[in-house]
Amino acid sequence: MKLSNLDLNLLVSLDVLLEERSVTRAAARLGLSQPALSGALARLRRHFDDPLLVRSGNTSELSPLAQALRLRTSHALNEVERVFASEAVFDPATSQRTFTVQASDYAMAVIGPRVAQVLAERAPEVMLRFEAHPATLAGDPADWLRGVDGMILPRGFVFDVPSIALFTDEWVCVADEDNDAVGDALTMTDVAEMPWVLTYHGPTRFLSAVRQLEQLGIEPRVQAVVESFLVLPLYIVGTRRLGLVQRHLADILAARGGLRVLPCPWDVVPVVETLWWHPLHTRDLGHAWLRSVLVETTRSLARQD
């Protein structure tokens, strides 16, 4: 079907319908009447020759095609918005652009406030949206990055797309400040015998420091796995557990009290926090400005290393 025969408003309707799985809720979000959105759903069903939303008791489920369309639709909308937000000259002082960067909560905590301060001073109408990075990082990195302005991840997880190193951090261990099982320094015996709480402990997302331990023949006694660095203290304070965090974040967490920060008793590979982006964004003037801001604001972190 030719693009000229399509109503791009249907793309917006499709995106919200697939997210809400309800005509009533989707209509409320879009500010449309239910009959109007029901009509849009009927047109979408005719176009795809598929029900898209399938009744299951009192709720609706996505058809197999709708499940496949969900991520594509979101990416397509982002690209359409990017086209219409394009500027021949990017002026941060007047731009109303939104930049979306995926990152861990560690990067959001350490980098985000610095960048937000610069934007408030130099680009008051620009919005920076931080999102959690995908649960899995399988497949072509260009596919993950197509619908966002970038992703902040350590080196070693992404390849074959443009990138720039922001700063280097190091892994450290954290323990409850009153944990009497920990002496002045951790030993490899402590590491092997004490319980741990770890983040992103799985086949496709893992901590490089933990992978190094496994290569040394030590399998940590993992009692809990969380998808957040910021909640680690809740699983450590008042317990005998150990945790692994990055030095810059450890300093922030320890300042709140309750934690001791200890060097790892094995040689840990440095964490090189890096911005990765889709090649399509390289010549984008606004994107180039964002990259320069990220590099500038992380220089102070590099000086602390």
Secondary-structure map with pairings?
Blueprint: H1 9-20, H2 23-30, H3 34-48, E1 53-56, E2 59-62, H4 64-84, E3 98-103, H5 105-110, H6 112-122, E4 127-132, H7 141-145, E5 150-154, E6 163-169, E7 171-176, H8 188-193, E8 195-199, H9 208-215, E9 221-226, H10 232-236, E10 242-246, H11 247-255, E11 259-263, E12 271-276, H12 285-304
Parallel strand pairs: 3-4, 3-5, 8-9, 8-10
Antiparallel strand pairs: 1-2, 5-12, 6-12, 7-10, 7-11
Helix pairs in contact: 1-2, 1-3, 1-4, 2-3
What does this structure look like?
- This protein has 305 residues and is α/β, with parallel strands linked by helices.
- The chain has three domains: 82 residues, Arc Repressor Mutant, subunit A, CATH 1.10.10; 104 residues, D-Maltodextrin-Binding Protein, domain 2 (3-Layer(aba) Sandwich), CATH 3.40.190.10; 99 residues, Periplasmic binding protein-like II (D-Maltodextrin-Binding Protein, domain 2), CATH 3.40.190.
- It is 41% helix and 21% strand.
- A five-stranded mixed sheet has the order 4-3-5-12-6. It has a five-stranded mixed sheet with strand order 9-8-10-7-11.
